[in-house]
């Protein structure tokens, strides 16, 4: 290929939309007679935070290891930042916090980061490496040896390792398992700042509240298969509003029913709002009810939580299972 043709090809490639952070299709893995992962496919787009949920043994860590080229799939394909998962050029752009983390106890925190920057083949200035330790709350422990770190401090260091080489895609396998509540809140802020910087994230966590707060989309694995996947509105469905009311006339009840499917329990009326409801649906409903002479004591927005939805999906998957 001539230099000119190569340049033209590079220009063409540069004009293409960026490839997904990760794409996988039909992933399968067996360990002996046990099937750990059975036909898993999904995509994490650039700048997207994807939650990977599922009970113990569902296959989450095995999927993550296959995405990273650390475990060889029996079947299926992976593209990591548009390249094969085993391609060092792709891996150098990915930050990874493993579920089980251990760092060289004889090195200081700063030395661990320096080592990982070198492994990624990058040049990250000392100031930026220090900033990274600051980001995970270890600024004042940079010169201390990892051997003397608590488990939570080692997990914080693992987060810094995952972030220090300016990754385009970050995979965090249970990043808050050893962290205190402040540490968990720090990780939440960190995830939001990655999202702002268009860094894609795959987050495996049993802390469903955290996943619900930060993730754009969720994949739920159960027994090695995808049991459900989608954005939070898709998975959680329509929202509802609960109103505690008095002096409800027939006309007011009609108005409530016109807003969505209506159920009543004493003086509490619950309206399931259709998916296309706008932000003014509830204020307009309340104004109309007041206009119809209703006394409004309470208005509470509500939506099924991700935890309720997850339990529903997993229980449905076990119906008919031998106990
Ligand atoms: N190296 C291995 N050798 C044998 N079996 C394995 C191996 N790794 C995973 N498995 C099996 O594969 C299945 C999925 O395990 P995996 O660790 O992927 O689950 P997980 O969803 O990450 O679970 P957890 O939430 O408990 O971390 C389990 O039945 C596990 O015993």
UniProtKB/TrEMBL annotation:
GO terms, molecular function: ATP binding
SMART domains found in the cross-reference section: AAA
CDD domains, per database record: ABC_DR_subfamily_A
Family annotation (Pfam families): ABC_tran (PF00005)
Keyword Nucleotide-binding applies: yes
Family per record: Belongs to the ABC transporter superfamily.
Protein name: ABC transporter ATP-binding protein
């Amino acid at each position: 290929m001539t230099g000119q043709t190569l340049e033209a090809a590079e220009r063409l490639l540069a004009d293409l939309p960026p490839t997904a952070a990760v794409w996988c299709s039909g992933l399968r893995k067996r360990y002996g007679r046990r099937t750990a992962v059975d036909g898993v496919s999904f995509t994490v787009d650039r700048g997207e935070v994807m939650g990977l949920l599922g009970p113990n043994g569902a296959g989450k860590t095995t999927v993550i290891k296959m995405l990273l080229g650390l475990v060889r799939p029996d079947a299926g394909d992976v593209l990591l930042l548009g390249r094969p998962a085993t391609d060092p050029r792709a891996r150098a752009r990915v930050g990874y916090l493993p579920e089980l983390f251990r760092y060289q106890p004889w090195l200081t925190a700063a030395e661990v980061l320096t080592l990982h920057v070198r492994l990624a083949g990058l040049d990250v200035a000392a100031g930026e490496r220090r900033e990274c330790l600051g980001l995970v709350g270890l600024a004042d422990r940079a010169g201390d040896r990892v051997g003397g770190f608590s488990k939570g401090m080692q997990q914080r260091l693992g987060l810094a390792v995952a972030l220090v080489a300016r990754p385009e895609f970050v995979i965090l396998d249970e990043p808050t398992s050893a962290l205190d509540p402040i540490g968990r809140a720090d990780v939440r802020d960190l995830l939001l700042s990655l999202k702002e910087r268009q860094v894609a994230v795959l987050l495996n966590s049993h802390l469903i509240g955290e996943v619900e707060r930060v993730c754009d989309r969720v994949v739920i694995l159960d027994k090695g298969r995808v049991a459900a996947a989608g954005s939070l509105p898709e998975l959680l469905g329509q929202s509802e509003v609960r109103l505690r009311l008095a002096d409800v006339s027939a006309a007011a009840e009609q108005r409530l029913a016109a807003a969505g499917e209506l159920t009543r329990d004493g003086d509490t009326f619950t309206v399931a709002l259709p998916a296309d409801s706008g932000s003014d649906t509830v204020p307009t409903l309340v104004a109309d009810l007041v206009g119809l002479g209703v006394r409004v004591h309470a208005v509470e927005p509500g939506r099924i939580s991700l935890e309720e939805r997850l339990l529903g999906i997993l229980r449905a998957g076990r119906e008919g299972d031998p106990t």
